[in-house]
Amino acid sequence: MAIVIGAKPESGYDDPMGLMADCHRRIERFLETLRVVAQNASGRELSEEEARAVGTALIYFRDAAPRHTADEEDSLFPRMRAAASCDVISTLTQISELDADHRRAAMLHQSTDSMFNRWLQQRKLAPNESQQLQADLRTLCQIYKKHIAVEESIVFPLARRILNSSVQLAMGEEMKCRRGIRSGAEPAVRKQSSGEHASGQQKPATA
Ligand SMILES: [Fe+2]
Ligand SMILES: [Fe+2]
């Protein structure tokens, strides 16, 4: 398996915000794969390599990415809402907007998934479908760019500050559970080489 020299090691479940940021890097990589293929292969059949890369990215967004959304919506945001500090109150509006982004992105992922699957099965997309697919992917890129920036520059640092270590460990346990990992078992993300995520050629096991 390929090794990416200098790649940042994946975070562990004792650092839930670090793990969520790692998930963001995968979201960015798989989304970029879809965007580039939709643009470069417009009007023709996908090559084997493109079809494989698209298949891996679609599986990621279908199976693994929703766990990241659940990490935030079920494990992180409720704990931040429960911590009634002034800092949190001013961030609550932004958290509500993040929830709305999740809903909007999920709908766009559904439509891009169907269009890519039609492309894979019928070998070609009609020009209007191809344009719609590219537009939806551009919108997804815009949503994630702003969304991830808010989470990484405001929400995660604040969460690290206001949630004590036992709360963060409890979040990590919930994240493990969501991925079917037993307590004390080695995190799945650490079993994979960085090359798996960089190449996008293997089925991702985590969000
Ligand atoms: Fe999010
Ligand atoms: Fe996120």
Describe the 3D structure.
The protein is an all-alpha fold and 207 residues long. The chain has one domain (16-190): Four Helix Bundle (Hemerythrin (Met), subunit A) (Up-down Bundle). It has helices at 16-40, 48-82, 86-122, 127-162, 165-178, 188-191, 194-199. Helix 1 packs antiparallel against helix 2 (48-82), helix 2 (48-82) packs antiparallel against helix 3 (86-122) and helix 2 runs antiparallel to helix 5. The longest helix is centred in the middle third of the chain and has 37 residues, at 86-122. The model is unreliable at 187-205 (pLDDT under 50). The structure holds fe (ii) ion (2 copies).
List keywords for this structure.
binds fe (ii) ion, Four Helix Bundle (Hemerythrin (Met), subunit A), 7 helices, 207 residues, single chain, mainly alpha, elongated
